[in-house]
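Q: How would the structure tokens look for this protein?
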Amino acid sequence: MKSKLNIGLLIFGLLTVFAFKFPAEVKKDKVLSEVVLVADGAGETYELINSVLAPNYEAIEAPDCSHESFGRHIDEVFDASLKKNVFRFFMHKTPDNNKCKKDDRQRNEIKTYSNSPDNTLAVKNEKVVYNWKFKLDANFQASKGFTHIHQVKAVGGSEESMPLITLSVRKGAPDILELRYAEFAEQSTIKKTDLTPFKGVWVEVTETIVFGEKEVGQYAISIKNVSTNKELFSYSNSNIRTWKTDADFLRPKWGIYRSLKDADNLRDEAVLFADFSIKELEN
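A: Here is the predicted structure in token form.
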């Protein structure tokens, strides 16, 4: 009887330990707000994007005016593998340009900016999670110049022209996916990987940033294959400057922004995106 009592007390003690310790170990940050942009079917794609990222304003930087015969360069299609509607971003080798200007680059991006809701704009000491999916064509071609598919940039201040974070693809041996970072006004690659596993498949990106100067700033990114859940790329740094001098705020951009300096290696592309989320967490 005594041994049974001791075993019962031991089990009770273990349960008590788990009851008090386990929740603390798996505690998740409190979600303060979340803004989501999800494709809902063909038609009125620009109106949908603007209604979420910049209500009553324009959140799209597309080359439509240089290629009017094609029409809108972002639409929505049903994707059989995800079994849902997704966004399709077009970029043509010619005549697409950069915001209606003849330039050495092309741009088809969506963004948040000064006319966007406050909870899509990051300020100092905020913790934000950006989440989205994308799919490159199986025959996607990169060039020796830049092809950006995501940026985190400042608005305001002396460093606003230089993105804090950039996710790019670039031609090489092999072609690579690279994560680029600029502490101040110069950017460098902090991690890169073979692009091959990213072609022809859906991947999901989770990017977590605590915005601030060093000793406050934190950055982490994880990219997983949607169908297998295998992590293809990751990077984290818990002591990194994630701010820009005198910035008003930082904000995300997604799409296709590419150089024409190595145009011979480019072709017409259609990159798919889905399920954008901007989540503010309690820090």
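Residues 1-26 have pLDDT under 50 and may be disordered.

The radius of gyration is 22 Å.

Upvote if useful.
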